[in-house]
């Protein structure tokens, strides 16, 4: 494995929440991510777009610890996290949602959120301890319910929620640990236009004061939410810029956006 040059102190910008340096991932002889270098600033909403098979979900898996990179460095607030386990990365302030809804269908909305809160606060199963008496966990659960606007659905079983409500609940579970960095993987996939509009408003609200990184195929959502956009094609970043310049970039139009860029 090729050694990665040390990251210079000048590169460790205090304004960066995430720093990726020459990240590569191969499965066997097949390279999927081919040397991604990217700085994501604290407090920005950053979208990663690209055609199917570009390596977007693999890149998310590398950042969140599901996969270890073949080569490269990933820093979260200046601390190296490449190769760490997902729960270790989560406790350092990064949380992630998935493309497929990941909830406990037979538990209530409140209980789903509280599970995320309990984990983040370090509570473990204890036969003698009543969760009802854990004031810090209950207060944080209430705050999260308010953030995702689901207080009125607190006692509803998650499995009977609408699809859009389940996605909102998953975002709630994601932010239950009060992370500084949120990764959302296609948060509006499968939604109607009105559901998407509500999801965008929710994402804007819960990401306020946090760093948001999202993979999203809906270009309306991307251009509405993102401060900057990175375009991933065949495992490489071909452009990172503000939405207006990405929309007008001929290479991006050719590789991904096409005529939709002018819609």
Name a few traits of the molecule:
10 strands; four-stranded antiparallel sheet; alpha/beta; 263 residues; 9 helices; six-stranded mixed sheet; 33% helix
Q: Span from first to last CA?
A: 45 Å
* Secondary structure: number of strands: 10
Let me know the largest β-sheet: 6 strands, mixed
Arithmetic mean of pLDDT: 88
Helix content range? 25-40%
Strand order of the largest sheet: 6-7-8-3-9-10
β-strand percent reads 15-25%
**What is the structural class?**
alpha/beta
Would you spell out the secondary-structure blueprint of this structure?
Layout (H helix, E strand, L loop, with lengths): L15 E12 L2 E12 L3 E5 L6 H9 L6 E6 L2 E2 L5 H5 L3 E3 L12 H12 L14 H13 L15 H13 L5 E5 L7 H14 L4 E5 L3 H7 L2 E6 L2 E6 L1 H6 L1 H8 L6
Parallel strand pairs: 3-8, 3-9, 6-7, 7-8
Antiparallel strand pairs: 1-2, 1-4, 4-5, 9-10
Compact summary:
The chain is α/β, with parallel strands linked by helices and 263 residues long. The chain has 9 helices and 10 strands. The chain is 33% helix and 24% strand.
Describe this entry's structure for a reader.
By secondary structure, this protein is an alpha/beta fold. The protein has a domain at 102-166. 33% of the residues lie in helices and 24% in strands. The chain contains nine helices and ten strands. The protein has helices at residues 56-64, 86-90, 109-120, 135-147, 163-175, 193-206, 219-225, 243-248, 250-257, and strands at 16-27, 30-41, 45-49, 71-76, 79-80, 94-96, 181-185, 211-215, 228-233, 236-241. The strands form two sheets. The chain has a six-stranded mixed beta sheet, with helices on both faces. Strands 2-1-4-5 form a four-stranded antiparallel beta sheet, with helices on one face. A hairpin with a 2-residue loop joins strand 4 and strand 5 (79-80). Helix 3 (109-120) crosses helix 4 (135-147), helix 3 (109-120) packs parallel to helix 5 and helix 5 (163-175) runs parallel beside helix 6 (193-206). The longest helix is centred in the C-terminal third of the chain and has 14 residues, at 193-206. It starts with 15 loop residues before the first strand and ends in a 6-residue tail after the last helix. The model is unreliable at 1-11 and 259-263 (pLDDT under 50).
